Prior knowledge:
The chain is mainly beta.
Amino acid sequence: MKTWSVLFVSLLIAVSCTAPGGGSEGITRRPAPKLPEWAFGPFFKENALNPILKPLKSSTFYCPVRKETVNWEAKDVFNPASVTRNDTVFLLYRAEDTVGKYAGTSRIGLAYSLDGLRFTRLPVPVLYPDEDSQKVYEWEGGCEDPRVVEREEGGYLMTYTAYDGKTARLMVASSPNLRTWTKHGPAFGGMHLNTWSKSGSIVCIRDGNRLLAKKINGKYWMYWGDTNLFIAHSDDLIRWTPVEEKGELLAVMKPRKGYFDSDLVEPGPPALQTQNGIVLLYNSRNSATEGDTTFQANTYAAGQVLFDVKDPTQIRDRGLDAFIWPEKYYEVGGQVNQVVFIEGLSFLGNRAFLYYGTADSKIAVAVWN
């Protein structure tokens, strides 16, 4: 019986972590990933429920900049942050309409769930371009790709990307309740105000179901970037200083030739301090010429890296395999093909929920028991 139990578990992992055979979903079968001992997982996709959020053409919102009503989540919904507040999981997700210069301005919506799997949406976005001081950065590309952490003293801190049509800038907002947000403007100032910047993953600790921003060596730390991985520090979570070396941004992690992360690396959910170090789940793109030939060119898959908790700029270990990748039809085809893009990680009881965008079009979840 023991032998059969082991065999059954092995088959379950292989089936859950790989694509079905027959090429109909755009990839070939892959073996289960080999995770380092310090890594999170294994995560199993909730295939029976995924995708858990899809575009919704009936949602309307009066855009204060466009001065007209738009179907604000009609085109695509993707790239969600997540937060557990009391016994409820909240998703703050990117949604696009279908109008304007880019055929889709991005706004951030809010949905909630008692089981982490089935979500109810609020009818209007909670963060969006407005006639305010940040319009110059946010219009008309919009507000994109949030990550959210909780402050030890209470309230929430969001990093998000503003796109003005030329430059992406990492922005900061805060909220007491996840519904009403105060914009604080660009995370970086001075010479880096106009530096292309995205994807701010603030280092946290886990306190029950909460992810709390926590200082290391007297400062908060944040991984960011969508080419190499860069790092910044802050005294207050609002204004951030990128770390430099010899006048250049310090790249704390770079793409690797021959691997799934051969073209670019980009932070996923908030990084977590553990007894082994700082675990960062990150997104990556496969190079068309120097990548992992078992993945298609430009495939977005996710990996894990371990940084030193005493020196967040130093890598202690890095997983060799992607632990989640495109395999289902809604991950393989969409606004951008071959994309699994992780951004939200939440804990509820003894389960961890990993939320991700699929082909820049829908939202799905994977669970680690």
